[in-house]
Design goal:
The protein has nine helices and no strands.
């Protein structure tokens, strides 16, 4: 049943762009209601639906509960990024940056490095640090370049040194 539940959640997200935002929240909530109230994955999905609908103030406590309830290693980085993005949208930029910097420390070189760096760059820009944001983005981008990785990293470091 658990995989079936995940498949149904995935189906809602696959069609979310064809649905009204409040319908996405309702559809996710209907499936969340099938799980225990402290189910971390269900809380994460409820938070994500609210975030998707622009209801960041309602999403934040659900993200925090999901994290506190013990999300698995596959969902924890996503929840951290999404919570940090929500905090940025709630004008709590310093909290957002702290979460993302901690995640980069925890995931310095894996599949979460790039996505985390992207949201950190956004948060730094929101804080008024566009040069630092560019440096973070360039450092993350360097890993994906077929050539010039060393040069791009060097230029990013120069941005921070100025």
């Amino acid at each position: 049943m658990q995989q079936n539940w995940r498949d149904r959640i995935a189906d809602i997200w696959a069609h979310a762009d064809t649905m009204a935002e409040h319908d996405v929240v309702s559809a996710i909530d209907e499936l969340v209601a099938e799980r225990d109230p402290d189910d971390a994955e269900a809380l994460f999905e409820a938070a994500g639906a609210r975030d998707y609908a622009g209801l960041e103030a309602a999403a934040e406590p659900l993200y925090r509960l999901a994290i506190k309830s013990g999300l698995d290693a596959a969902l924890m980085p996503r929840a951290t990024i999404q919570l940090a993005s929500t905090l940025r949208n709630l004008n709590r930029v310093d909290e957002s940056i702290a979460l993302l910097e901690q995640q980069l420390h925890t995931h310095p070189d894996d599949e979460w490095t790039g996505p985390t760096a992207a949201f950190l760059a956004l948060a730094l820009t929101s804080r008024g640090d566009p040069t630092q944001a560019a440096a973070v983005a360039l450092m993350a981008l360097a890993d994906y370049l077929p050539i010039y990785q060393r040069s791009v990293r060097g230029y990013a470091a120069e941005l921070l040194a100025d």
